[in-house]
Amino acid sequence: MTCCGFTFNLFLFTASTDNEPPVFINCAPPPTVTVDADPNNNGAVVVLPSIFATDNSQATPTITYSIQSGEFFTIGSSTVAVNAEDAAGNMAIPCVITVVVRDVTPPTIVDCPENAVIVSAPLGQTSATVVWTEPTATDNSGSTVTVSQTGGNVGDNFPVNVPTTITYTFTDAAQNPSVCSFIVFVTASTDNEPPVFINCAPPPTVTVDADPK
To answer: pTM of the entire structure?
Structure first.
């Protein structure tokens, strides 16, 4: 540039703007973490994988998790969003970690009769009414446990000398089954008692006169 007999060198400086977000380097495909729930709980503590990102500025981006590693996750599927932000405030599209906690523990049964329920039929009868304490079950997931039963119900009549298998099957929401099974057996009553006289104490004495002839 020349003005008034003088020559000037004009330099123009512009500020560089960083509009480029960080790039994740280990989130393709998005990771899935699968763990089994604790046997006595409705979830598990989950360790999440470390996610890394790079940035065009060569500075290390700030990585944040929506849920921290080592937290308790309940049974089922959850997602964790991992964010990467550079010094210029550019945010990467979140890396989404899927956490799956599986329920692999069957329901816990209480009051299952041991081995067999044995009763005697009334004397002269060929069957008897049988009752027992019905078993129940709870599950670590806290969900409702469904029950199915085969073989007979409490209060049914069961035939003499015919063993009957009673089975209760308890199933939780994850389709884990627990089975309570026992035998119902009705025995025939045996009469081993002799008759009892009701008018022979003391033994009676009969006295008569001899025939004169």
So the answer is: 0.74
